[in-house]
Amino acid sequence: MQVYLEFEKPVAELEGKVAELRALSDTNGSVSIGDEIARLESKAAQALKEIYGRLTPWQKTQVARHPNRPHFKDYVGQLIEDFTPLAGDRAFAEDAAIVGGIGRFDGQSVVVIGHEKGHDTPSRLEHNFGMARPEGYRKAVRLMKLADRFGLPVIALVDTPGAYPGIGAEERGQAEAIARATECCLNLTVPNVAVILGEGGSGGAIALATANVVLMLEHSVYSVISPEGAASILWRDAGRAQDAASNMRITAVDLKELKVIDDIIAEPVGGAHREPVQTISETGERIASVLKDHYGREPEDLQSERWAKFLAIGRTL
């Protein structure tokens, strides 16, 4: 079932009319309305193209959060062969908000780690809406060290509103766990690539996205805080999230200009949720290209390149 965002109402109306005409045509075979259906479909496609050609940062945020947007398990299911999930941090518990394991990508053994939000109410509760606790980041560190030991490239698929802010998570060392995961990313002696699939929220995202190459889907967002959180701090009014999003420079185009990310993966017209198979396939091709460029590199070069990349962010001199 197609879920329409608020700004997609013109498209929703047109596609609704198309559906009605198709139903009429199916129930009354004597009525020929093929030309009208084609005209409305063309009009809807043009409207969708125009709308997505001028999305505001706040609208991109809504697209990044679309409930039908493909998530970690969708990417793994299509791109990774023989995926074997590995659970637990060997210290406290399993955290389903971060999923990781070993599999084969493009003929090469890899370690894949990422946030999983879930697609319906039960799975969203199971995965805590992609908001990881300390044990999730400690599990990620365990898997990255495993990758380092066996010389396996690391693929990180990031999609989280941020790390879980609950009292229990803070008591168990949330900030320290995020810092350790970030440090582990920086010190890897194998290639690592990160892709921002939807939301890249704060330290919860950077803990996995400190990579040699950071890619970002066209309509995803990446920021130190959510627009609602920023609006609450700056204006004490979460309702001004749209203003915050417009000023925070959270879109892929802005972040590439700022050199926070390395490149942008184009999405189909209407967003990744309209053509998930195509989006996942193109994302896989980009990841494969990045890893191919980094295979055979000296460990010291991979480390120094990664450190230099992140130390250079924000420098003006």
Describe the structure.
It is a single chain. The chain is α/β, with parallel strands linked by helices. It has two domains: 6-54; 61-311, 2-enoyl-CoA Hydratase, Chain A, domain 1 (Alpha-Beta Complex). 50% of the residues lie in helices and 15% in strands. It contains 14 helices and eight strands. Strands 1, 2, 3, 4, 5, 6, 7 and 8 form an eight-stranded mixed beta sheet that branches. β2 (98-105) and β3 form a beta hairpin. It is globular, with a radius of gyration of 21 Å. The chain starts with 8 loop residues before the first helix and ends in a 6-residue tail after the last helix.
How do you describe this structure in short?
Helices cover 50% and strands 15% of the residues. The chain is an alpha/beta fold. The radius of gyration is 21 Å and the shape is globular.
Count structural domains.
2
CATH hierarchy, class of the largest domain: Alpha Beta
Order of helices and strands, N to C? HHHHEEEHHEHHEHEEHHHEHH
Query: Whole-number radius of gyration?
Result: 21 Å
The name of the CATH architecture of the largest domain is: Alpha-Beta Complex
User: Can you give the helix content as a percent range?
Assistant: 40-55%
Q: What amount of the residues lies in strands?
A: 15-25%
How is the CATH topology of the largest domain named?
2-enoyl-CoA Hydratase, Chain A, domain 1
The average pLDDT score comes to 92
Major pleated sheet: 8 strands, mixed
